[in-house]
Amino acid sequence: MIKSIATTILKLIGWQVSFSLPPRDKYVLVGAPHTSNWDFPLGLLAMWASGLRVNWVGKHTLFKGPLDPIMRAMGGIPVNRREGIGFTRKVIESFASREQFVLAISPEGTRSLTKHWKGGFHHIALAAKVPIALGYIDYPSKRIGIERMFEPSGDIEADFEILADYYRDITGKRPEKQGPVRVRSVAGKKGCR
Questions:
Q1: Where are the domains of the chain?
Q2: Given the DSSP bridges, would you call strands 101-105 and 76-79 parallel, antiparallel or unpaired?
Q3: Which among 146, 158, 155, 51 is positioned nearest to 104, based on CA atoms?
Q4: How confident is residue 187, by pLDDT bands cut at 50, 70 and 90?
Q5: For residue 26, how many C-alpha atoms fall within 13 Å in the half-sphere facing its CB?
Q6: Residue 171, helix vs strand vs coil
Q7: pLDDT score of 84
Q8: 16-19 and 26-32 as β-strands: parallel, antiparallel, unpaired?
Q9: Which residues contact 92 (CB under 8 A, 6 or more apart)?
Q10: Does the structure show a pLDDT above 90 at 80?
Q11: 19: Cβ–Cβ under 8 A, 6 or more apart, which residues?
């Protein structure tokens, strides 16, 4: 029922969903660009419409009070940015202990303009030995989906070149808040968008 409701809502507001991935039980799902509060509800609707069960990372402050059980029921995992290493270890353990686990992360880490992406999703995928799926939300075309997946090589700069190429023509709701697709270690390197 949730699937048909989500599909209907997306159609009514003019959004198209495109999911064309090979079936995999475990992967890290990059969600980008993240420039607006609207990204979250649109992303959830798209996941529900596709029937994909996803866990997602959100600021721990979103999980306070009566919202906590609701956010967790929707697949939310609170993260306190000050506890990054402990969180990463817990997520890697979740990949090892579960039969099926898809973790969605927005590597920008904020809706504000950033100079680079955070590389934690890459580290998690490598340590958990799972692929990275590339999810997108393109406001000009009103398309949202996941159409590509790759195995991280361990060479973060080379992998970020793949990411930069993929997201080159994808535009968020607020393009002025959409930063370059690059990791901090290559922040000065040319060609990383």
A1: 2-186
A2: unpaired
A3: 146
A4: very low
A5: 18
A6: coil
A7: 55
A8: unpaired
A9: 124, 127, 128
A10: no
A11: 50, 52, 145, 146, 147
Q: Which ranges of 23-171 would DSSP assign to H, the alpha helix? A: 39-50, 67-73, 84-97, 120-128, 156-167
State phi, psi for 57 to the nearest 5 degrees. -100, 135
Which of 44-48, 52-56, 108-112, 185-189 has the least mean pLDDT?
185-189
pTM for this prediction: 0.84
**Token output for 69:** 């059980």
- Residue carrying the six token digits 């361990």: 154
Residues 6+ apart with CB under 8 A from 161: 191, 192
pLDDT of residue 53: 87
- pLDDT for residue 139: 96
Q: Where does residue 105 fall: left (phi above 0), alpha (psi -120 to 50 degrees), or beta otherwise?
A: beta
For residue 61, pLDDT over 90 is answered with no
d(CA 157, CA 186): 7
- 134: closest CA among 161, 156, 163? 163
Using DSSP, state whether 97 is helix, strand or coil: helix
Amino acid at site 176: E
The 10 Å CB-count burial string (b at 16+, else e) for 94-108 is bbeeeeebbbbbbbb
pLDDT at position 131 is 96
> For tokens 């596709």, what's the residue?
50
Average per-residue pLDDT for the chain: 86
